[in-house]
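Table 4 source record.
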Amino acid sequence: MRRIKKVSLNRIKSRAGKSRIFKKIMLGVLIAFPVMILAAGLWLYLVIKNLPDIYTLKDYRPSISTRIYADNNQLIHEFYLEDRRVLHVSKVPKHLLNAFVAAEDTRFFQHQGIDYQGIFRAFLKNLTHGAIVQGGSTITQQVAKSFYLSSERTYDRKIKEAILAYRIDKYLKKYEILNLYLNQIYLGHGAYGVDAAAQCYFGKSATNVNLAESAMLAGLPKAPNKFSPFVSMERAKQRQAYVLTRMVEDGYITAQEKDNALTARVRLNTHALQGKVGPYFIENVRRYILENYGSDVLYKEGLNVYTTMNMDMQHAAETAIERGLREVEEREGYKSPIRNISQGKYAAFLAAVSQELGQRELKQGMTVKALVEGNDEAERVVRLRIGAYRGIASYDDIDGGQVDADVESGKPSRAPLRAGDTLNVKIISVGNPIQVMIRLKQPVQGALLCMDVRTGEVKAMVGGRNFYQSEFNRATQARRQPGSAFKPLIYTAAFDKGFTAAKVLVDEPLSFKGALPGGQDWNPENFDREYHGPTTLRTALVHSRNIITIKLLQEIGVDYAADYAANMGIASPLARNLSMALGTSAVTLQEIVRAFGVLANQGKKVEPFFIKKIVDRTGNIFEEHEPAYQQVIDPKVAFITTSILQDVVQRGTGQGVKAIGRPVAGKTGTTDDLKDAWFIGYTPSLVAAVWVGFDDGKPLGRQEVGGLAAAPIWLYFMEKAVGNTPVETFPVPEGIVTAKIDSRTGMLAKPLAGDAAITEYFLEGTAPADYSANTLENKLYKLFMGTPEPKKPSTPR
């Protein structure tokens, strides 16, 4: 009995102990629960207190792209941080709205910003997976996240999102929320909002998309890059089918409409992933806006920039440059091996490379075809694919690949290639990745600039062969020696000082003792190394005689000629010595166009400009260019030079362009070392200049003079630029007279002068009055023939 009693007492003690523990636990819970509630309440209070103000949503002012237009108001480019075009929801087709609602938030019009059913489904799925894999966000929650929150997947952020969504739903009407959503959402390839996406994918405004296109757009928010039709049309169609199915289930469309949409052909915007038109022109505009208004205005304020670019002329310029430079390369063996392919052709190219390699083992020293995938600026390497293999090339292993140039010095510098370039590479070492050497033949470069001579509008500009390899603009930034292309400015200065086109100077050897650095003698020569004796200024300029030009410069004075050229538009510093006659002072293409424009525009100088008008998103005009001119030389003097430059085309160094079949004036330019080839030509309306050369200044080749290397490019361009315009002639200003002279002597033509007798233009009062330098002979001619009166020309020749 005592033993049993003892056991019972132990049990009682045990139960009492457990009771005390339970009471302590309960007491702890009773104490902790209010603390937890208080902490949760405090946290929730802080969350709510720190939530952003939603009342600015009604004043929706997103970052909008700056839009660049050609001279016919055609959109040609946009600058943006986010490619967005704001389109009010009232202008969006009903089927596009319904597609997004069906795909993203089927109960959008029923819930109050939060879909509790959707959240519960997402919670269960996340619980099952042990991680956040589904958000269950409504359209309103997506708006809240887009405007105010990060994209991190945490419950903390989801709670903030839900509170904001509830507030937004109470503050805004449903269509206002949709308006924010459809303009803010990212839909791939840099496009924000449905209108930018419709333009990107289909080349049309969202106001014009059909049901099939709407469903494809509505399928993008889930994963824009994955479901992009540019990346995979198959996946895009699968997502499109899902959206259409949801629209049928929600009663927005019928099953037949779904089937019709699924079978409808979706035409993609083939221009979306292509290079931009006139990239050098556009970059020039971008730099101007950036320098004058700053990056925020350029990239966020939605400017409309109306430029002077003529699309047809720009296309013609780019085509002409590439055609002409290929011809130079083929003649001289400089053909570049680089070819760029579109992203859609990558797979086929790599498969062909793999097939070509076959079972061969890659070894050091082998030359193989490769595709450039991109550049790693941080590591200074180009990343490539060689069939199924990965490869890299250090920037230091790009041999001969200078594709950019320093703006200040004009000297080339090495820069990376661009994605899609295909070329041959040499294997340095086999590993993972394969290390290769890229050997490039330096491409011949060229530039072209065309200006309306009456207004200064730049109608077309090409600053180089490939903007994506070199943004350096050789039309506006590079200074190169113009060679003989500078001579017309010296002759014009001489005509303004009283010389006539019939003035005779002797073409003969010249020597200037100690004129060169180091005290060496300077012995200039004509390009053909021949001398032609007494020569009129017209003949000297038509055939680009160096000796006559040097003598002419001596007579008018170096300082006078330099100041005259500056007055016509040459802004670069000129070496004030006799070598100026040979165009040894470097100038830009834009400067030479401005100066020749004075000749074309009857002595009036206009400043080249690229932008007509800049307007902000509210219609406020930032600036507007009003063409203005300045009469800088006598129109009669300008005409005298123009008449000679017409002869350059008809029978001189520029004969290659007379095939254009209309009045044009022009001048070739070639430096003595054959590093630069030029042609500048003009009609009464347009002046265009072409430069050809290497960035590093090496010679083009013995035959690559201005008439062969540059003039054909000018012709290819101008044939397109003026092809459908009426033929114009250069007007003869008042005060110009003509006289029949002997082109050998510059005096009045004798009866037996034959082909040497030409009609020459003179300023009134400057025509010759004698037949011969021999006094007796002249008197006899005057006695029997009289002195002919100079005539006022009716039309220019």
